[in-house]
């Protein structure tokens, strides 16, 4: 689900995006950590703007975050859901349930890892 969000400080947003663009063009690999940090700052600004407008922000539960991290870290191993359930001390049904609840809220970038 995409939504339009009016940010509170558009000048900060524009400056940060320009900085990211400049760093990628000039030093695409040397500034990777810096670029990630700038993207995180943009996400924080978006969340602050959403809160200021009275909108809710997505806060997944800890089990779902651990599940996503485990999948990302073990993606090449092609494990079954049952493996992750055992690893996290839960059931396949619970992982399926939380995945369905959070699927529409999960950013598309996660699937590109």
Helical stretch tally: 5
Could you give the count of β-strands? 0
Structural class: mainly alpha
Mean pLDDT, to the nearest integer, reads: 80
Q: Over the alpha carbons, how many angstroms does the gyration radius reach?
A: 17 Å
| Element pattern in H and E | HHHHH
Low-confidence runs: 107-113
Distance between the termini: 20 Å
Classify the beta-strand content into a percent band: under 5%
The main sheet comes to:
none
Helix content: 55-70%
Number of domains: 2
**Dominant shape:** flat
What's the short story on this structure?
This protein is 62% helix and 0% strand.
Describe the 3D structure:
By secondary structure, the chain is an all-alpha fold. The protein has two domains: 10-52; 62-106. It is 62% helix and 0% strand. The chain is built from five helices and no strands. The chain has helices spanning 10-26, 32-52, 62-73, 81-88, 92-103. The longest helix has 21 residues, at 32-52. The chain is flat.
What is the topological layout?
Layout: H1 10-26, H2 32-52, H3 62-73, H4 81-88, H5 92-103
Defining traits:
mainly alpha; 113 residues; 0% strand
